[in-house]
Specification:
This protein is of the alpha/beta class and 486 residues long. The chain has helices spanning 76-85, 103-117, 133-145, 164-177, 188-200, 207-212, 215-232, 244-255, 266-270, 273-276, 294-306, 348-358, 364-378; strands at 6-15, 18-27, 30-35, 43-45, 50-53, 55-60, 88-96, 121-122, 125-127, 150-154, 180-184, 236-238, 260-264, 311-312, 396-406, 425-435, 438-442, 445-446. Bound molecules: N-(aminocarbonyl)-beta-alanine (URP) and zinc ion (ZN) (2 copies).
């Protein structure tokens, strides 16, 4: 009788920070053995392949209503299938509170949607747009206790943004109850002032979206939220950073000992504002912040290398190029009316593997860290996820490092109907993907029941620990001297 349910034989396995040739024994959905010459009846031949921890995408929007009331194109089934085909075995999407919503009701709703449909494991972040008493004092602590240990706030978007005092309230609650504050950092006034003028002048095409979301608006908002976080001694993670100026602001904060993490996404490494400059079709490339220029792309690569950017996520925000998404008013839709966001769940890792690892910009370790391990560590699911270690879930992506793929929308599994990366030639692809020891994707075929994915209640992580750099004035506040729940 064999001790293993499944054996991954002969691959180059990424474990403990490096690759080594070994077999992986799997039993009960977990990795139970790493060694040479393991034997078992059910085997996957991984010779010539790289066996890496399954990817973790900690920034994606699934079955989410935008602030403008537009439902994104993917539900938990299509999004998680797309993730699996792209080598991602855990997703952490957002449960979005809109103004007036009860946070508890929002969370219950997303649980129900995901439970029935997800094919990979998932956690949740919250989006807080209504930081009133019931939200901050009852619903949020309950959500955190149920394992939702992070939430996003917005400094822009008419119906989502919080003003500085609200941000401070949210930070105080996060610090008190042990959660990470993720920030969409863009200066609202700068963007909407410019957009108003552009529209008055009849400039309504998507290209003006990129023009209005200036680089300075990102840098200003990052600097301001860093100052707020310093006052509160509250760790923050700036999502979807797109500019050299923004990255530099994060570097400066980190150099001063503040706990500020950064994230970037494929659209800031592989697209530029020129992609948006193609008439109405530019809408397919519109997201906030927008793609910039080659210099900004280079700054993002540098930020990934030196740690100013800590994680690489998709910010998958799928909206179809039709009246349900990008073009609610057809050809008359202005850049202010189209849904913001681009798809990227499935191509996130193949793009980084090909253009980062295969082109020598990143080491394999950096690729694994940025696409998987650091997400697990930051969001409290490590080493269950994000590692190939004894005891970890057998969530694995087996990559053929030489497989050449020409990207097209029709090969992808999300419901967006287009990809901003069409026509690109990539080298390397995750040919076999396992979730908790089950082969869910193999050679282009899915074998995963709807709803097999499990909810991940996340634990407190080191990323939540305040720096302990108290701004002296805060010591005057009695509540500030109570111990933290970490
Ligand atoms: O344009 C974007 N990024 N849309 C998704 C929502 C967000 O701000 O992340
Ligand atoms: Zn955002
Ligand atoms: Zn997003």
């Amino acid at each position: 009788m064999t001790a293993f349910d499944l054996l991954i034989r002969g691959g180059s396995v990424f474990t403990d920070g490096e690759s080594r040739d070994c077999d992986i024994g799997i039993a009960g959905g977990r990795i139970t053995s790493l060694g040479i010459g393991l034997s078992g009846a059910n085997t996957v031949d991984a010779r010539g392949k790289l066996v890496l921890p399954g990817g973790i995408d900690s920034h994606c929007h699934v079955e989410q209503l935008s602030s403008m009331g537009i439902m994104c194109a993917d539900d938990f089934y299509s999004a998680s299938v797309a993730a699996a085909f792209g080598g991602t075995t855990t997703i952490i999407p957002f449960c979005a509170q809109h103004r007036g919503d009860s946070l508890a009701a929002v969370l219950a709703d997303y649980h129900e949607k995901a439970r029935a449909k997800a094919v990979v494991d998932y956690g949740f972040h919250l989006i807080i747009a209504n930081p009133d008493g019931p939200t901050l004092d009852a619903d949020l602590p309950a959500a955190i206790a149920s394992g939702v240990r992070s939430f996003k706030i917005f400094m822009t978007y008419d119906r989502m943004r919080l003003h500085d005092e609200q941000i401070l309230d949210v930070m105080a609650a996060a610090r008190r109850d042990g959660a990470l504050v993720m920030v969409h950092a863009e200066n609202h006034g700068m963007i909407s002032w410019l957009a108003g003028r552009m529209l008055e002048q009849g400039n309504a095409l998507p290209r003006y979206h990129a023009i209005c979301h200036t680089r300075g608006s990102e840098a200003e908002a990052i600097q301001r939220v860093v100052a707020l976080a310093e006052l509160m001694d509250c760790p923050i993670l700036i999502v979807h950073v797109s500019t050299a100026e923004g990255i530099e602001a994060i570097r400066r904060a980190r150099a001063r000992g503040l706990r500020v993490l950064g994230e970037t996404c494929p659209q800031y490494l592989f697209l530029t504002a020129k992609d948006i400059d193609r008439g109405l079709e530019g809408a397919m490339f519109c997201c906030s912040p927008p793609p910039r220029d080659e210099a900004a792309q280079a700054a993002c690569w540098e930020g990934l290398k030196d740690g100013a950017l800590h994680v690489y996520s998709s910010d998958h925000a799928p909206y179809r190029y039709d009246a349900t998404g990008k073009l609610p008013k057809g050809a008359q839709t202005t850049f202010k009316e189209m849904a913001n966001g681009v798809p990227g769940l499935e191509l996130r890792l193949p793009l980084l593997f090909s253009e980062g690892y295969r082109k020598g910009r990143l080491t394999l370790r950096e690729f694994v860290d940025l696409g998987s391990t650091r997400h697990a560590q930051t969001y409290g699911i490590y080493p269950q996820k994000g590692a190939i270690e004894i005891g970890s879930d057998a969530d694995l992506a087996i990559w053929d490092p030489d497989k050449r793929v020409r990207v097209s929308a029709s090969m992808l599994h999300d419901n967006t109907g287009y990809t901003p990366y069409a026509g690109r030639e990539l080298t390397g692809w995750p040919v076999t993907v396992l979730s908790r020891g089950e082969i869910i994707v193999h050679e282009g075929k899915l074998d995963a029941a709807r709803g097999r994915g499990r909810y991940l209640a996340r634990a407190p992580s080191d990323a939540l620990r305040p720096a302990g750099r108290q701004v002296p004035e805060m010591a005057q506040l009695a509540e500030w001297n109570t111990p933290l729940k970490l």
